[in-house]
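Format notes (please read before filing issues)

Several people have asked whether sequences and structure tokens are stored in separate files. They are not. Every record keeps both together, in the order shown below: the sequence lines, then the token lines. Line labels are part of the format and must not be stripped during preprocessing.
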Amino acid sequence: MIVKFKNLSLQKLFEGEDVPGKPKYDKAVIIKFKKTILKLQFVNSITEIRQQKGLNFESLKGNLKGYFSVKVDYNYRLILTIEKDKIEISEIILIHFLTNHYQ
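Then the structure lines:
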């Protein structure tokens, strides 16, 4: 799947670039974040994402209705949306933010 970032800081974090300011995430979370993005890049459909038990793909409710989440680690989730690309007829995952699930 095609993965695009709506959040420039997360894109820089994924690409290994410096993010200005105090680090928000420790190194272990960053490594797991990058692995999760790579998993998303190598699947071909939402069905394949759902089949990967470790990702815990789920649709969100309430204020985040229309968004989905995947598990990065025990505490962190990636919040994303999925759109259809009309040109390539493939799904595009847009990464919005990385959140601590239990705070």
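For reference, the curators noted about this record: The CA atoms of residues 22 and 74 lie 23 Å apart. The radius of gyration is 13 Å.
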